[in-house]
Amino acid sequence: MKVLTLNCGSSSVKYSIWSMPAKEVLCSGTVERVTLGSSFIKHKKSGKEEVIQKHDCPTHEVAIELIIKFLKDREQGVIVDLSEIDAVGHRVTHGGEKFVKSAIINGEVIKSIGDCAALAPLHNPPQLAGIRAAMKLMPNISHMAVFDTAFLTTMPPPNYIYGVPYEWYEKYKVRRYGFHGTSHLYVSKRAAVLLGKNPQDINLVTLHIGNGVSVTAIKKGLAYDHSMGFTPVEGAVMGTRSGDVDAGIIFHIMRLEKLLPEQMENILQKKSGLLGITGKYVDRRDIQKAAEEGDSRAKLAMEIECHRLRKYVGAYIAAMGGADAIVFTAGVGENAPLYREKICEGLQCMGLKIDLKKNATAVGGKNEMEISTSDSSIKAFVIPTREELVIVEDVVALLEKRYDVHTNFKYSFQK
Description:
CATH architecture of the largest domain: 2-Layer Sandwich
Strand content: 15-25%
Mean pLDDT: 92
Helix content: 25-40%
Number of domains: 2
Radius of gyration: 22 Å
Low-confidence stretches: 405-415
Largest sheet: 8 strands, mixed
Strand order of the largest sheet: 5-4-3-2-1-6-8-7
CATH class of the largest domain: Alpha Beta
Distance between the termini: 23 Å
Number of strands: 14
Oligomer: single chain
Number of helices: 15
């Protein structure tokens, strides 16, 4: 079985073809600068060197046409005819409250994704454009939508309702949604395997630490709480996003600086977080190096980020009444031992002890590793995330009609 994955951004389309059930990536790539001019494709067939080719892509449809051309290419392709593709899995950022699991795409699903566009204006519209284009170009193939918010829909109301007028939730669906759901789902299932337990029997705190950062409390295998909120701005300090901030500060600065809402939103999304604190750095490697060389603001940024994450870990363990493990994933989570060490400082009181030697060797983002000591009552793991595999597994489960909420994925997690 061959599954094509598509992840459409506002100016890019990422893709891959998987052979299932072998879970083998046959090829992958990205079309960059879609709609912007000077577009190009980067294509990598398994076992071959990456190929880069310029090609103007004024629309997502043209970009997907280009992808299909490469998929069928005699030298770089992995199929002869589109009929060899069994299904297409589309990543969709926001499914609102409607989609608690992945879905076979039809007219109703397309309408609902469009209805959620107001909740994710930067993501859902280009993803919807990609879905429409792909369905036009591949009309005889099943198309499935895999929602980044779906795993997080199991949060109970006390954990997703804000302390604002309840009518805002009733009228405008203002609530905590959360993001990075596919990543948290994947590492939680893998953690269950490493613990030798069923996912429904464990409590976890999973930390997705990249440019965007999110923390999820997973109770009895289901999402219980999450750091991001109505938008991805809430929660931990991130590369360019502020994370939690007193709303009063926003109004105060808007008055002083005479800022429009759009300007303030841009600041909170793109000019805050680690960039805002350091004044120049987003990459944690740059921040760590600068801190070691005596840059006080870089050191401050590192301390702020780790302190905030430590608070989330401690709070979530307490809220769940204990945890079996915490999991680090994504670029920083998988490759930054110092950050993991500092995040876990002081959590010995909760039974979490890091083995510094193990932690120091957990780099490269390739292998799953336990980094806690043998006597740590709460285990700590580094688990490289594989969000595309979540998409592929969901697609296969839908094709085989064995889908149930959050349980279809178990087939990938045998010991």
